[in-house]
Amino acid sequence: MDTTSFLGIKNSQEFSSNALEVFNFQYRNNEVYHEFCDFLGIVASKVKCIEDIPFLPIEFFRTKEVLSTSKKPSLVFSSSGTTGSNLSKHYVAEISLYQQSFRTGFKLFYGDVREYCILALLPSYLEREGSSLVYMVNDLIQLSDHPESGFYLEDQDVLAQKLMRLDSQGVKVLLIGVSFALLDMAEANSFQLMNTIIMETGGMKGRRKELIREELHDKIKLGFGINTVHSEYGMTELLSQAYSKGNGIFYTPPWMKVLVRDTEDPLSWHPEGRSGGINIIDLANLYSCSFLATQDLGKIREDGGFEILGRFDHADVRGCNLMVL
């Protein structure tokens, strides 16, 4: 099948057609997913719409090699976690699919990356190997071709001075950072930024007290002197990202879709406006699994956007965890 057909999706009908094709491909070629579908009693020939497709709990990425190809993975992305814990591992057979997905997605939401100076404040990610976020941001930094684009680890004073100088010069800056580092920087400085986008990637990583998104954004806005905080929604198990340009409302690129499942019955769906478990279709995940049940709680809006409201209290997704162990 055409590995890049997802990039040309223009409407919901094309999305559904592509999703069903990918489902059948992955059912035939992904041993873990095939076994999961059989366990649920899913008959592939009876899957006629995306609501019929079973969603694999992302916990499987902690214990299984989720692959839909015999190709040797070119790269393995891994999640963050405590020592001794099972980390999620995403075996990526075609890194070009990831590159095309995040490059095209960024362009759809933010335009030409060459228009930006990209400053990355991702200490907790840079300190370990296998971060898909670091891979993406590093690629965008290289593509931006701005002489001052780059990563910053702990020297926030240098970053603060550079940020104020670039912003005052009218340079379009994208500062992308993990939540705790952005908070540290906001509290240590008093900015009034006019030409800078602040994008948080979530996560206190045990460094600070967890905050609800509204409180987090209020603190960041106050410290940086800005009106809105952007957000990136992604995870190790995905090859695509959703973006929010304010108020915590995320939107997906055309090859990605969010559905909300009933937390008590993971095979049932909630309509717009009702909160439940977040399921994601990511058609860029062609050679792993495109249909994932996450541990996030959220709801879908009428305009197609979605909100993240929190996470499940327990790691296992009720009703779908029997094969994980």
Biggest sheet, in brief? 7 strands, mixed
Shape: globular
Elements, N to C (H/E):
HHEHEEHEHHEHEHEHEEEEEEE
SS-based class: alpha/beta
User: What topology, given as strand order, has the largest sheet?
Assistant: 5-4-6-7-8-9-10
Rg from alpha-carbon coordinates = 20 Å
Quote the beta fraction. Answer: 15-25%
Instruction: Compute the separation of the termini in Å.
Output: 32 Å
Q: What is the number of strand segments? A: 14
Low-confidence segments = 315-325
Helical fraction equals: 25-40%
SS field, number of helical segments: 9
- Give the averaged pLDDT, no decimals: 90
Considering the chains and any ligands shown, give keywords for the structure.
disordered C terminus, 325 residues, alpha/beta, five-stranded mixed beta sheet, 20% strand
Polypeptide structure, described:
A hairpin with an 8-residue loop joins strand 8 (230-233) and strand 9 (242-244). The longest helix is centred in the first third of the chain and has 18 residues, at 12-29. The chain is globular and about 60 Å long. The protein is built from nine helices and 14 strands. It is of the alpha/beta class and 325 residues long.
Can you give me a brief rundown of this structure?
The protein has 325 residues and is of the alpha/beta class. Helix content is 30%, strand content 20%. The protein contains nine helices and 14 strands.
List the helices and strands and how they pair.
Layout: H1 12-29, H2 31-39, E1 56-57, H3 60-63, E2 75-78, E3 89-92, H4 95-110, E4 117-121, H5 123-126, H6 132-144, E5 150-152, H7 156-168, E6 173-177, H8 179-188, E7 196-200, H9 213-224, E8 230-233, E9 242-244, E10 250-251, E11 256-261, E12 276-282, E13 291-300, E14 306-311
Parallel strand pairs: 1-13, 4-5, 4-6, 6-7, 7-8
Antiparallel strand pairs: 2-3, 8-9, 9-10, 11-12, 12-13, 13-14
Helix pairs in contact: 1-2, 8-9
